[in-house]
Amino acid sequence: MPHEVMTEVRERLIDWDGRGISLLEMSHRSEPVRQVFAEAEADLRELLCVPEDYAVLFLQGGASLQFAQVPMNLAGPDDAADYLISGTWSKKAAQEASRECRVQIAASGEESGFVSVPDASTWSLSASAAYFHCAPNETISGVELPELPQVSAPLVVDMSSTILSRPLDVTRCDLIYAGAQKNIGPSGLCLVIARRELIERRMRPLPNILSYAAQDAAGSMLNTPPVFPVYVAGCVFRWLKRQGGLEAMEVATRARAGMLYEAIDSSDFYANPVAPEFRSLTNVPFTLADAGLDSVFLAEAEAAGLHYLEGHRSVGGMRASMYNAMPLAGVDALVAFMHDFAQRHGG
Ligand SMILES: *Cc1c(COP(=O)(O)O)cnc(C)c1O
Question: Which ranges of the chain would DSSP assign to H, the alpha helix?
Answer without folding.
Answer: 3-13, 31-48, 62-74, 88-97, 196-199, 212-217, 227-243, 245-265, 294-303, 328-344
